[in-house]
Task: inverse folding
């Protein structure tokens, strides 16, 4: 019997999601002695017609929604397979590990509402189940909050040098501004930034843009870094490889579908704005951001803005649903979460840079408003720890 030495990934390496899956596969194999006889290998779509599976032990399968001919080829493979995209219901591919797309849509809605946006829109792909789940949960969360949302579904076909699908440029021109657009992924968000530049639309002042994936290329490509919902590809790859290893050993995994929650949203330049029309509140928000690093005193803020505390609180509540003190707390927690996820700074330094007077005050606030401790949050969401990097 021929020895099977390969575990392959079928996917498009032009997107960071697929690259993350492939890296996560290699890391998982290296960390499991029982799997170290295998090597991870990427199969390009063009290789599939000529690919033999006699020495392949199993496969992780990326997106197939716009490649039905490829799906037909893969369906004939008599090897264990696990879906890591979740964008198509296929009877021959029942095992799936994917990001929780409903949680992505809900997080995006909550984030944009928190930033004061009342005009919201969604930019997606057509014929793509994962993106449809994101849209449905996004719109449902907005409707529950009394908001409406405009949606545009672009073609999944390649658009070449134009960057955006037909009709998208005209659509974004007619969207009433200021508005926020949640894009199904960072590739679409990057295309939207190009279209906005072509149309003379300012980002984020006229259109704020939020993507998905934290793509290491497209999130930074257009000169205006894209805020994004990161997808934990290493965690998805590890869960999928665990499922695949069970299948390779002739056993059935306990669940056919495993959903992995997304990472906390990363705020960058494309949404670094608060959508308010009240001039006093805009001045107050500018004041808070200007003084945040040095510590904010609401008492001094009232004096500097020449307004009474009750009036300031009332106007903030009407515009944002929270008082200036609540906005300070939001800024503190947003900054602290970013530091916990992206750095390994000790907790006292995280607290100081996050605007807290001490690590103890930070911990108390975290427990009350986030529902966990800073250490637990870092362990759950740290990008470096997720990737198994030594600090």
Result:
């Amino acid at each position: 019997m021929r020895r099977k030495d390969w575990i392959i990934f079928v996917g498009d390496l032009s997107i960071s999601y697929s690259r993350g899956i492939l890296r996560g596969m290699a890391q998982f194999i290296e960390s499991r002695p029982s799997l170290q006889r295998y090597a991870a290998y990427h199969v390009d779509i063009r290789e599939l017609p000529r690919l033999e599976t006699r020495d392949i032990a199993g496969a992780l399968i990326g997106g197939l929604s716009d490649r039905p001919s490829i799906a037909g080829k893969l369906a004939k493979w008599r090897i264990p397979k696990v879906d890591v995209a979740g964008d198509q219901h296929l009877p021959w591919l029942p095992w799936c590990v994917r990001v929780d797309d409903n949680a992505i849509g809900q997080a995006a809605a909550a984030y944009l509402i928190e930033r004061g946006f009342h005009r919201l829109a969604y930019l997606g792909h057509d014929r793509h189940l994962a993106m449809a789940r994101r849209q449905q949960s996004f719109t449902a969360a907005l409707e529950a909050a009394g908001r409406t949302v405009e949606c545009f579904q672009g073609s999944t076909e390649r658009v070449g040098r134009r960057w955006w699908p037909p009709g998208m440029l005209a659509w974004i021109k007619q969207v009433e501004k200021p508005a926020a657009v949640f894009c199904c992924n960072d590739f679409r968000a990057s295309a939207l930034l190009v279209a906005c530049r072509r149309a003379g639309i300012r980002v984020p002042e006229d259109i704020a843009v939020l993507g998905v994936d934290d793509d290491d290329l497209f999130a930074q490509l257009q000169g205006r870094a894209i805020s994004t919902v990161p997808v934990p590809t290493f965690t998805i790859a590890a869960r999928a490889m665990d499922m695949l290893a069970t299948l390779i050993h002739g056993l059935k995994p306990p669940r056919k579908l495993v959903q992995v929650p997304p990472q906390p949203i990363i705020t960058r330049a494309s949404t670094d704005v608060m959508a308010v029309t009240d001039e006093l509140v805009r001045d107050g928000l500018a004041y808070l951001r200007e003084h945040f690093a040095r510590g904010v005193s609401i008492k001094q803020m009232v004096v500097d803005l020449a307004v009474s505390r009750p009036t300031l609180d009332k106007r903030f509540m009407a515009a944002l649903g929270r008082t200036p003190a609540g906005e300070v707390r939001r800024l503190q927690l947003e900054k602290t979460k970013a530091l916990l996820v992206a750095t390994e700074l000790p907790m006292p330094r995280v607290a100081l840079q996050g605007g807290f007077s001490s690590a103890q005050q930070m911990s108390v606030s975290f427990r009350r408003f986030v529902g966990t401790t800073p250490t637990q949050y870092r362990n759950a969401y740290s990008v470096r720890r997720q990737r198994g990097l030594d600090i």
